Amino acid sequence: MSKEITGHEPRSDRDAIVRAGAGGEVFVVTSDGGPSVPPGRRTFVPRAELARAAVRAPVIDSAAFRADLDAPFHR
Questions:
Q1: Are 61 and 38 in contact (CB under 8 A)?
Q2: Which residues make beta-bridge pairs with 29?
Q3: Which domain of life is it from (predicted)?
């Protein structure tokens, strides 16, 4: 369950909110009575479904993929 807080509360009571968040509490920041950003919905994907999707996934050349990721940092 999440707790609704106004956009002003994180500025005025930051330490308490950070401690509560570190303790696992979830907050929805509101503006004009509604959520500032719609809360995301977590979706459970069964392991078998993930395995079926992985079978259909394209084969990736891991060395080329890594080189593509590293390229911007080695210019």
A1: no
A2: 5
A3: Bacteria
Is the pTM for the entire model greater than 0.90? no
Over residues 37-44, the mean pLDDT reads 73
Q: What is the DSSP letter of 33?
A: T
Alpha helix ranges (H) inside the chain? 9-12, 14-22, 47-56, 62-70
Task: Give which of 59, 65, 3 is closest to 29, Cα–Cα.
Answer: 3
- The tokens describing 65, both together, are 């993929």
Q: What six digits make up the tokens of 67?
A: 């080189």
Tell me the sheet residues that pair with 30.
6, 35
| Contact residues for 51 (Cβ-Cβ < 8 A; gap 6+) | none
**Is the CB of residue 39 less than 8 Å from the CB of residue 28?**
yes
